[in-house]
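Notes, Module 5: Reading structure tokens.

Key idea: the token line is not a picture. It is a compressed description, and you learn to read it the same way you learned to read a sequence, by spotting repeated patterns. We will look at two proteins. The first is printed below with its tokens.
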Amino acid sequence: MSEQRSNGHSVSQLTAHLVWSTKYRYPVLTGDIKLRCRKLLIQICEAEDVEILKGVISKDHVHMHIDYRPSQNISDLVKKFKGRSSRKLQQEFPELKKRYWGRHFWAIGYGCWSTGNITDEMVNEYLEHHRKPDDRGGTNFIIE
């Protein structure tokens, strides 16, 4: 895992697993297209100060495990990944225009799951230690 990010006001380690697919799940991410797609995603991550912890480009979808800043949001990052790579791939590989005549290379939507070095159970156990014996409010919001 990557180190924590810090600046003058915050410390964070935000990681996410992202998945998105080609439109109609066409298996077009092969050969030079696959290599160029990987290179474009790496360039976008470098420009946006996003660290790729691990990534996979399959023939019809992309997986990325990333570390990102707290000032960034996932939907904007995915929009940049999909938008910039779609535009460049279609410009550089004219054969894609025959299959994707509407200029939409990626399918609508994406999957996103937060990841980290601790589990939900670990967080809940830690927070439960703050409950006072007389706090029987029956709520998950504990008053210390």
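Here is the second protein, with the sequence above and the tokens below, as before.
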Amino acid sequence: MKMVDVGDKPKTERVAVATARLRMLPATRERILAGKVEKGDVLAAARLAGIMAAKRTPDFVPLCHPIALAGVDVTLAPVDEGLEIRARVKTVDRTGVEMEALTAACAAALTVYDMCKSVDRGMVIEAVQLDHKSGGRSGTWDREAEASSPRPAAAPKSRRKTSRPRAAR
């Protein structure tokens, strides 16, 4: 294992957007939106948790570079079955902020769960995903653009022969 050396890469503007969904009972969502959760303002706490988590990502994701964040924006919006969380992270640095955006979305979702678990332990955190990244050598990637473009047929997988026992692989 090693941390990738990014010292020779130029500093460029980089942006990443990640989302997560929380599925919950309609009554739970309504309590959150009405501000009727015993622990307080769930949406404000989740936004703050997401921002704080983005800033601390290298503390718990091994080999993740500590980078100076220019901005972190976390929003929560009601959707049919619960809430959607969107985290947008920006930097001007030598490496991207995908991990920071994903971490922010996860931390915001965990905070909602923590604050509402007394009324709905069946909540589900799902669909944590990167939706967009821009900047750096690889340029821009968008989930929507990838989904709408045709993919080339996959090459057949070759079966590699090995003398090691299956359990040791």
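Summary for the second protein:
- The longest strand covers residues 12-23.
- The first helix runs from residue 26 to 34.
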